[in-house]
Amino acid sequence: MPDLLDRRAVRLDAAATGRDDAIRQCGEALVTAGAVEPAYVDTMLERERSVSTYVGEGVAIPHGTLNGKDAVRHDAVSFVRFPDGVAWGDERVVLCIGIAARGDGHVRLLSELAQILLDPDRARALRETNDIDEVVRLLQPAGEEEPA
After folding, report:
1. What pLDDT, in 10s, does the model give residues 16-69?
2. 70 CB contacts (<8 Å, ≥6 apart)?
3. What percent of the chain has pLDDT over 90?
4. Which of 63, 81, 106, 137 is catalytic?
5. Are 15 and 82 in contact, with CB atoms under 8 Å apart?
6. Which of 6, 41, 53, 106 has the most CB atoms at less than 10 Å from its CB?
7. What is the β-pairing status of strands 91-100 and 59-60?
8. Are 58 and 88 in contact (CB under 8 A)?
């Protein structure tokens, strides 16, 4: 099974014209990593139109709809950081973490991401690091982190 977060799906210095552009970039990072078919990106935008994927603290976790499951090759995460922020409704997003999962995998991924992002030190490091390998390490579920 491929790694959940492929280095090719990490962008540390992105800029977006708005929410939809940010979501497209998250989806395209998943496509680049080979995790999803391009059609999945459209389902990510569809999901956002029905319910915001903004989760607070400058973080959004866009993901596709049930109709997008067939476009998922394997469970994966993308990480796109927008240093200048992106307008997301009335909020501002700096970290956009796209997820793709087959079956019920998205529930597990959301839960693991929530635990990671609730750790203030890890969340701060994700906002500040310029090292892709550090992002990959920080996004490992607790207990699965690779040694530094």
Report:
1. 999 999 999 999 999 999 999 999 999 999 999 999 999 888 999 999 998 899
2. none
3. 64
4. 63
5. yes
6. 41
7. parallel
8. no
Q: From CA 101, how far away is CA 124, in angstroms rounded? A: 26
Convert the pLDDT of each residue in 67-116 to its tens digit.
899 999 999 999 999 999 999 999 999 999 999 988 776 667 777 787 78
Q: State residue 64 phi and psi, 5-degree precision.
A: -80, 175
Give dist(CA 130, CA 134) in Å, integer.
8
| AA identity, residue 90 | D
- Cα–Cα distance between 5 and 19 in angstroms, integer? 22
Q: Over 60: is that where the pLDDT of 2 sits?
A: no
Please provide the DSSP assignment of the chain as one string: ---SS-GGGEESS---SSHHHHHHHHHHHHHHTTSB-THHHHHHHHHHHHS--EEETTEE--B--GGGGGGBSS-EEEEEEEEEEEEETTEEEEEEEEEE-STTHHHHHHHHHHHHHTSHHHHHHHHH---HHHHHHHTSPTT-PPP-
Q: Which tokens is 145 given?
A: 């982190």
Per the annotation, the verdict on 63 as an active-site residue is yes
